């Protein structure tokens, strides 16, 4: 197990460097420069700017310098647009916002999704089953940028129950709508996965054994069936996290939250090169580490899984 | 099962009617000598038609597709509106009014979905947006099919070290935050023309959505490549390329069709997501994502500007998903039992 973790970590590090390099190359290949605007700059001004940001050096020196400071000090440099703020400070400041929304959304999706999925599986082909699965399909099909504004329209602009946007600190009513919007699609996916997993497990021999030895239905479901039935849900956690990260981009845009995603879009629009690279790298690291955690969790929960 | 469906009529005679009749779906024809096999496809089609939700999905998809294609032209013929038509003479016309309302606030059939900020007919815009959304969805799926099938089939057929390296690459790509990279790509290479941006969008989406396709095809090819018909083909001197594309790939069509149907809504969602953020389709072209993005600006005053494109898109995705699920049940009898 330890060997597996070490080996995976060894693969992870080059992968992150590849992601950073791809981003760097894309930025450098793109026409124009971060300082170029509508009007061309006077040659003298342009020369000073290029010298200041080291753009007069050959590309391999620029690349080497960027990569070295990232590898050596985890230092992504200073933002070009937010004057005097390092990329690391911006990430540190915006991460709690994204993390709060993302984790709450995922928790909500897990709780509701597993409950609904299990009920649907236990009452297969009943109206509960059909109803909840149709609802789940709806959840998969409605894009979050449609769901979010519609929720705002209903709960903020019509009923005046919840604030429509902005960040209001961690436990605040402002979180309700973004979390709901973000979690809808995962709720739906998790409900479907749980249902499929449970249906398969409920037919298996060990459930029959559990029933045969006289366990109550509740014990059979909670102690035996759920453990096996949730395997697909756990393996979905990895991809879900990736989607969650991109989902937060939209949700933060809709609800004007100062999270990582919002900064990322701003940075892309402004061509704030260090900030783009910093956020891409951060997201890649999170994603890869999470995937590793999921694989480890998998091995613990399913004794049949063995990693070499 | 896999070899069964490859049998032609004349081959069935050799097996004899008794054996063929044992298969539930095969029915004897009145002559008694020949047996008439129901093909896999006809069988699947029959199963699909039994699934009401899938049929509804299919009907909705067909309706949305046809009205997206002919709708804008039809509206232009009848009302004279085009998606980018801005009436210039009357200042009252260059503003947003609600569904079924004319510029004077009276009931009117002219704009069943209202108009947008500039007074353009929303129905025409939604239908034109549908054209682009569906176009992007279908074409990008096709691109990803092309790449994914070739990649997966080659990896699976060649096997060994090549397979190992190729699938490792897929694993690594899988773990990348690709939407984030796509956003960087689209924002950095922002094209000056809307058409250029659309092409960029195709390349960006198509080049990252082939991964699952490659895995599916590889798995199928791995299980097929040791069967007799491949051995027979090789024995008669058929080249490797021909074996892969003429003998192996056609046998993976079932799962491929299912997965492709389910990929279209995913790609449409990605396109909408990118357009919503302002990186995808650019004005004067419109897609459901970009229309929703325009609509959200005025949600408090003109909610119909968001609701119509959004609901149309959700309805289409809903139907495509049901159709995909139905196809999976129809083409994959093993899944059907669950």
Q: Which two chains touch over the largest interface?
A: A-B, 47 and 42 residues
Major pleated sheet of chain B: 2 strands, antiparallel
Number of strands of chain B: 2
Low-confidence stretches of chain B: 1-32
How far do the termini of chain A sit from each other? 7 Å
Query: What's the arrangement of strands in the largest beta sheet of chain B?
Result: 1-2
Describe the protein's architecture and organization.
The complex is a heterodimer of chains A (308) and B (338). Chain A is an all-alpha fold and 308 residues long. Chain A has 12 helices and no strands. Chain A has helices at residues 2-29, 43-52, 59-73, 87-122, 127-141, 144-158, 176-202, 205-212, 217-229, 231-254, 260-270, 273-301. Chain A starts with a helix and ends in a 7-residue tail after the last helix. The model of chain A has no long low-confidence stretch (mean pLDDT 80). In chain B, 67% of the residues lie in helices and 1% in strands. In chain B, strand 1 and strand 2 form a beta hairpin. Chain B has helices at 9-15, 17-22, 40-50, 52-78, 122-158, 160-174, 178-188, 194-208, 211-224, 228-235, 240-248, 253-276, 288-297, 304-331, 333-336, and strands spanning 27-28, 35-36. Classes of the chains: A mainly alpha (308), B mainly alpha (338). At the A-B interface, helix 1, helix 5, helix 6, helix 7 and helix 10 of A face helix 7, helix 12, helix 13 and helix 14 of B.
């Amino acid at each position: 197990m330890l060997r597996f973790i070490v080996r995976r970590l060894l693969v992870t590090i080059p992968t992150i460097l590849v992601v950073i390099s791809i981003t760097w190359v894309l930025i450098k290949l793109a026409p124009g420069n971060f300082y170029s605007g509508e009007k061309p700059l006077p040659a003298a001004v342009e020369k000073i700017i290029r010298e200041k940001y080291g753009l007069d050096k050959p590309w391999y020196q620029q690349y080497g310098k960027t990569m070295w400071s990232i590898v050596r000090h985890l230092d992504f440099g200073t933002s070009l647009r937010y004057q005097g703020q390092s990329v690391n400070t911006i990430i540190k400041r915006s991460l709690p916002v994204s993390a709060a929304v993302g984790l709450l959304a995922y928790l909500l999706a897990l709780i509701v999704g597993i409950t609904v999925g299990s009920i649907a599986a236990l009452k297969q082909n009943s109206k509960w089953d059909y109803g909840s699965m149709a609802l789940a399909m709806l959840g998969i099909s409605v894009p979050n940028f449609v769901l979010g504004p519609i929720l705002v329209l209903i709960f903020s602009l019509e009923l005046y129950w919840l604030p429509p946007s902005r960040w209001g600190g961690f436990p605040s009513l402002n979180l309700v709508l973004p979390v709901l919007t973000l979690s809808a699609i995962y709720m739906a996916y998790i409900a479907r996965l749980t249902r499929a997993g449970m249906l398969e497990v409920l037919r298996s021999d060990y459930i029959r054994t559990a029933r045969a030895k006289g366990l109550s239905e509740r014990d059979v479901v909670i102690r035996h069936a759920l453990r096996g039935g949730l395997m697909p849900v756990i393996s979905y956690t990895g991809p879900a996290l990736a989607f969650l990260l991109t989902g937060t981009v939209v949700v933060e845009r809709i609800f004007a939250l100062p999270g990582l995603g919002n900064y990322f879009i701003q940075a892309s629009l402004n061509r704030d090169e260090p900030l783009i690279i910093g956020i891409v790298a951060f997201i890649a690291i999170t994603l890869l580490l999470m995937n590793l955690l999921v694989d480890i969790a998998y091995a613990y929960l399913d004794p049949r899984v063995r990693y070499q | 099962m896999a070899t069964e469906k490859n049998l032609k009529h004349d081959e069935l005679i050799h097996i004899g009617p008794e054996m063929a009749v044992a298969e539930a779906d095969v029915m004897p024809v009145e002559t008694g000598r020949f047996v008439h096999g129901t093909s896999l496809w006809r069988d699947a089609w029959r199963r699909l038609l039994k699934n009401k939700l899938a049929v509804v999905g299919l009907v909705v998809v067909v309706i949305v597709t046809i009205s997206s294609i002919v709708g804008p032209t039809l509206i232009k013929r009848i009302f004279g509106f085009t998606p980018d038509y801005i009436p210039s003479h009357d200042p009252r016309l260059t503003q947003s009014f609600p569904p079924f309302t004319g510029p004077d606030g009276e009931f009117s059939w002219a704009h069943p979905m209202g108009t947008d900020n500039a007074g353009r007919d929303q129905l025409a815009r939604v239908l034109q947006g549908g054209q682009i959304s569906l176009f992007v969805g279908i074409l990008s799926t096709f691109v990803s099919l092309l790449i994914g099938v070739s990649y997966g089939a080659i990896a699976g057929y060649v096997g060994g070290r090549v397979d190992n390296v190729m699938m490792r690459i897929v694993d690594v790509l899988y773990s990348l935050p690709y939407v984030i990279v796509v956003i960087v790509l689209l924002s950095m290479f922002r094209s000056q023309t809307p058409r250029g941006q659309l092409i960029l969008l195709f390349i960006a989406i198509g080049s990252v959505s082939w991964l699952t396709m490659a895995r599916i095809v590889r798995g199928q090819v791995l299980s097929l490549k040791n069967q007799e018909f491949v051995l027979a083909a090789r024995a008669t001197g058929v080249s490797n390329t021909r074996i892969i594309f003429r003998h192996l790939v056609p046998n993976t069509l079932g799962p491929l069709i299912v997965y492709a149907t389910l990929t279209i809504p995913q790609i449409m969602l990605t396109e909408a997501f990118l357009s919503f953020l302002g990186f995808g389709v650019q004005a004067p072209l419109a897609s459901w994502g970009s229309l929703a993005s325009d609509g959200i600006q005025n949600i408090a005053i003109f909610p119909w500007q968001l609701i119509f494109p959004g609901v149309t898109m959700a309805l289409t995705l809903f139907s495509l998903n049901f159709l995909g699920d139905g196809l999976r049940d129809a083409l994959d009898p093993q899944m059907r039992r669950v």
